[in-house]
Amino acid sequence: MNFGRLIAGASLSALWSFVGNGAWAHPSAMVTGNFTSQPIGHFEFCKRNASECTLRSRKTAPLPMSSEFLAQLQQLNVSVNKAIKPISDFDLYGVEEYWTYPVDAGDCEDYVLAKRRVLIEDGIPSSTVLITVLRRPNGEGHAVLTVRTDIGDVILDNLTDAVLNWDETGYTYLKRQALDHTGRWVSIRDGDAPLVGSVH
Questions:
Q1: Measured between alpha carbons, how far is 30 from 173 in angstroms, rounded to an integer?
Q2: FRET pair for 70, CA 20 to 30 Å: which of 24, 94, 141, 147?
Q3: Which residues form a coiled coil (predicted)?
Q4: 39 contacts 133 by C-beta, under 8 angstroms
Q5: In sequence order, which residues have a C-beta less than 8 Å from that of residue 141 and are 6 or more positions away?
Q6: How far apart are CA 93 and CA 74, in angstroms?
Q7: How far is CA 144 from the centre of its chain?
């Protein structure tokens, strides 16, 4: 945990350096591919919350990063991570995949849904806060929230309180929500094998 915090601190310092200097040497955004299968947990979530999975957005430009926005993301990540107790879907609901808005406990997808809802309620476009699934270095499937900014994509993750650049996490990214349709998903270039259940 301490090692993770050291890495997180370094990444956050780099972001603050950008904000202070008004320039960013190496902006990095995920490169996405074609439409791909929807994770089964999201498919079932959409059946229960149809209005949330049919949103279309014409505004797909990334958000401008600022010190205020970075602080907002950091505060949100910390507050949701502290408020929700990590517990598996199987232990909580008796099934392997059940994506839902958490009350006080949930797994990684539930943290993502909670953070995404807060940002959208704050006026952030749905095209810039995208549910993203990936593989951790230990091979386990995981989900995070990708926030698209003009300095690159950053990650809100329940496994760390820091806001990280997506390409500094050590994860292998598989797929994420499409920019212009909340119910569709696209592949991510470095993803090579889905580790979460999907519908085809």
A1: 9
A2: 141
A3: none
A4: yes
A5: 133, 134, 135, 195, 196
A6: 30
A7: 3
Backbone φ and ψ of 152, nearest 5° = 120, 175
Contact 122/129 with Cβ under 8 angstroms? no
Quick: pLDDT tens for 70-82.
Answer: 999 999 999 999 9
What is the arithmetic mean of pLDDT over 102-120?
97
Separation of alpha carbons 188 and 176, rounded Å:
7
The residue-averaged pLDDT of 9-16 equals: 46
Q: Which two tokens stand for residue 34?
A: 């074609």
Per-residue model confidence (pLDDT) at position 171: 97
Q: How many residues does the chain have?
A: 200
The DSSP H or E segment spanning 48 is: helix 40-48
* Greater model confidence, 19 or 79: 79
Read off the tokens for 135.
């593989």
Q: Could you report the per-residue pLDDT of 35-52, keeping only the tens digit for each?
A: 999 999 999 999 999 999
The answer to whether the CB of 197 falls within 8 A of the CB of 151 is: no
- The chain-wide mean pLDDT, for the chain, equals 86
Which candidate, 62, 61, 63, 67, places its Cα nearest to that of 18?
A: 67
d(CA 116, CA 112): 6
pLDDT surpasses 50 at 2: no
Q: Residues near 25 by Cβ (< 8 Å), separated by ≥ 6?
A: none
